[in-house]
């Protein structure tokens, strides 16, 4: 939904659009660098403290500001621009990570600094994530969004697939030694430094972009009013309201069972134990990448079937949850995990593309922040519920979660508004072209 005219970019591959190409290159490098941070931080905490409780509290601390400031981040994205917010967020996080690289390499790190880093990084993430989701429709036309989302989500998934392995090898090879039996922190310091360098790549490409934020929309008088306007926009739109209810249900019934339940399932049901857990997670990640690719290459569902197809694929995810506890064979359960990842990858691309086509440009940041908040806010609730149910019965967790998700899907399928969501976009685009055609004649 960029300001470029259709004649200039219509049917052109997204990577031939200069600003999107710069964004994709910079973020590809940055996302790979993020995996070094994700591996280095918990490893540093364990090296410094040797305390699992400290690790848990530090990682949890990052999620608190991420949730608290997410809606504010979305409001600032709409007030200034996705590009500006991404630039500032990446600049702040680059400085933080570079500082930590220096502290680690000079053996000056202290426990309170780790808490401060987690807190500050959480704030930066709260502004970055809505901006990252809102910038793609600002650079591309509607007919380019699906391929654009395939490219951005594909490289994000690929980085999560290969990045941790590379980061782990770097940390291990460059670890050095404090004593004859204790690894040093040099590898962790280098990992932080590589992450800082990756932020620099993103900053350079963002700086080179030419896209200018539209100033035509009237701005809300303050941030709270802006957030309230975003909430009202979603609630008053019948399609968005139902979709966000579905999204909350999806996060509630999938995050906890998968993040908390799958390790327990591997331990109790599968002979390979920890190795099986790794296989299941890799299968899910590989499936997500496959689903993203399929979303980009398979024919688009017809507008009149789009909503039903999307809901049907989500329903397959619920079935997959229930099937995870059926077999004690690691290859069989891994195949189910692969299929679940595939459905999630496909749905993510299709849903994001539809959302970016439907939401007005001036509301994009706030709607995307609500999308992120629906995941960040529900995650701890889902994890806590999953843990409580696991103490009672493993089968109840997966079967109950899958059945509950499919019940919400069936309820959504009976809603004509959701079934017509594909047609709704097409009809609105036609309504927009009628006045334009009348004006030209």
Task: Draw up the topology in text.
Layout: H1 6-9, H2 18-49, H3 52-68, H4 70-79, H5 82-105, H6 111-139, H7 145-173, H8 186-208, H9 223-236, H10 238-269, H11 274-297, H12 303-323, H13 330-358, H14 364-376, H15 379-390, H16 394-413, H17 416-419, H18 421-440
List keywords for this structure.
mainly alpha, Growth Hormone, Chain: A, 2 domains, disordered N terminus
Number of domains: 2
Helix fraction? over 70%
Structural class: mainly alpha
Rg value = 22 Å
The chain-level mean pLDDT equals 83
Q: Class of the largest domain, according to the CATH hierarchy?
A: Mainly Alpha
Could you name the ranges where pLDDT drops below 50 across 5 or more consecutive residues?
Answer: 1-10, 436-441
Q: What is the fold named in CATH at topology level of the largest domain?
A: Growth Hormone, Chain: A
The general outline is globular
Continuous helix count: 18
Q: In the CATH classification, which architecture of the largest domain applies?
A: Up-down Bundle
What oligomeric state best describes the polypeptide chains here?
A: single chain
Strand percent estimate: under 5%
- N to C succession of SSEs: HHHHHHHHHHHHHHHHHH
Tell me the span between the first and last alpha carbons: 25 Å
State the major sheet.
none
Number of strands: 0
* CATH homologous superfamily heading of the largest domain: MFS general substrate transporter like domains
